[in-house]
Amino acid sequence: QYKLTVFGSPIAHSRSPEIHQCFARECGVAIEYTRSLASASAFPEIFRAFADDGGVGANVTLPLKEIALRLADSVSERARLAGAVNTLVKTEQGWHGDNTDGAGLVMDLQRLQVNLANARVLILGAGGATRGVIQPLLSAHVGELVIANRTLAKAEAIVAEWQQSGRNGKSASQPQTGRVNITALALDDLRLHQPWDLIINATSASLGGERPDVADQVLVAQPFCYDMVYSDAPTAFMTWAQQHHCAVADGFGMLVGQAAESFRLWTGHRPSIEHALKLLR
Ligand code: ATR
């Protein structure tokens, strides 16, 4: 039996336990998956207690993902680039930190049959959610990536960091990303830009019932519009995009996708996202 948990605060409404139980049934694996409430200051101690108690894997959610990066004994390239860890895996060499959020997004976009190869992609927002998905989108061979934010300086900082990390240059492990143009823009400047194939809302605006204030012109080419937030009703961003005849999706599939990738890291099994979504939606 795999002893697993999700750390976060708040955590009571996390859907991770039911998602992983669904995977476990499908794959015929026995798991115990609990929710662990942990503030930022208490997290290291609560994590140690879980590890001492036989824990072998964990998910990490807000506001602990950056702390988990420092707690881990080793981290994956994608976690380092994201600046955050959402998955901890017990190994013989200690606790390994990984980040499956971006892989979850890409899996969900593939499920939705959004063509990523050479796509012109606009990401709205420049917080942790954006950081976590850049490398996986580049690995999926998007053609252009623009990060647009209300506060331009934050988008510029992400782009500069990315360029410094060398991932947009001469990386031997990812030669394909070398040609991709990553740019930072202010939300106001988007109307002057070219049409989009895919717009990803990575802002937290949806949580407050709002949408980023961008011109309707960004929807002229009817891009696929993806909101990383999920809720029972369509978000303000999704409603706006639908009014302009765009196909839309919320981030529930991304949540299930990142969970599937975490489950694979812990157990070696690859559960079906489609199956879990059918049962849990
Ligand atoms: P996360 O880690 O979830 O990405 P965050 O780091 O707090 O959260 O970042 C939230 C992002 O949503 C920021 O890019 C923020 O824009 P600013 O940098 O200008 O603050 C963006 N955001 C939040 N509410 C928004 C709104 N109503 N309109 C546009 N952008 C918004």
Question: Would you identify the CATH H-level superfamily of the largest domain?
Answer: NAD(P)-binding Rossmann-like Domain
The number of distinct helices, counting runs of at least 4 residues, comes to 11
Q: List the domain count as a whole number.
A: 2
Name of the CATH first level of the largest domain: Alpha Beta
Q: Please give the CATH architecture of the largest domain.
A: 3-Layer(aba) Sandwich
CATH level 3 topology of the largest domain: Rossmann fold
Order of helices and strands: EHEHEHEHEEHEHHEHEEEHEHH
* Helix share, percent: 25-40%
What's the total count of β strands? 12
- Ligand catalogue: 2'-monophosphoadenosine-5'-diphosphate
The coarse overall form would be globular
Report the C-alpha radius of gyration, rounded. 19 Å
| Overall average residue pLDDT | 94
Placed side by side, the strands forming the largest sheet appear as: 2-1-3-5-6-4
- The proportion of residues in beta strands is 15-25%
Q: Spans of 5+ residues with little confidence (pLDDT < 50)? A: 168-177
Q: What is the makeup of the main sheet?
A: 6 strands, mixed
Distance between the termini: 27 Å
What class, by secondary structure content?
Answer: alpha/beta
